[in-house]
Specification:
The chain is built from 4 helices and 6 strands. The longest helix is centred in the middle third of the chain and has 20 residues. It starts with 17 loop residues before the first helix and ends with a strand. It is an alpha+beta fold.
Length: 164
């Protein structure tokens, strides 16, 4: 075994426990919400997806449940789009999950700093031979509805609402 070849900063950092990630609120204060910031990189998108699964589990939906899988896919696609199309050097992207049990929905919001790059109003056609471009099609199929809105002072938020 090699010793002394890694520094403390090289060691992987332990993710916070799901209970530390999820801000639970009582019904009077609103539905349970979880928020986090991630680096605008493929690794950040992967961590956002993992964060979403941990939140769903903390809210009583196991990782293998249909709703958890759907949320993981939606977060993965929206986060990947934020990294690929909405990346601004030096800026992170944000993720907010809101569990609305009364409405039977989970709302996913991914915010990035790119103001000029906006998602299409509907899912664009993708040639069968294309290697990418199907992310919003997946979101469209998995979500009850999705859209985007400008964010002040800069950027945009792309959101999707999925049925529990």
């Amino acid at each position: 075994m090699l010793t002394g070849t890694t520094a403390a900063e090289d060691e992987p950092r332990r993710s916070p426990a799901p209970s530390d990630l999820v801000t639970l609120t009582d019904e009077a204060a609103g539905p349970p919400t979880a928020t986090a910031q991630f680096t605008s990189s493929p690794r950040g998108a992967q961590l956002a997806r993992r964060f979403a699964v941990q939140c769903m589990e903390a809210w009583g939906h196991p990782p293998a449940a249909d709703v958890s899988c759907a949320i993981a896919l939606v977060v993965g696609e929206l986060a990947a789009n934020a990294v690929r199309h909405g990346r601004v050097p030096g800026r992170d992207f944000g993720l907010r999950l809101t569990l609305d049990e009364v409405a039977g929905l989970v709302r996913v919001e991914v915010a990035d700093a790119a103001t000029s790059k906006r998602p299409p109003l509907s899912t664009p056609p993708v040639p069968p031979e294309a290697e990418s471009g199907r992310g919003l099609l997946l979101v469209d199929v998995l979500a009850e509805r999705w859209g985007w809105e400008p964010r002040e002072p800069v950027g945009k938020t792309v959101w999707a609402e999925c049925t529990l």
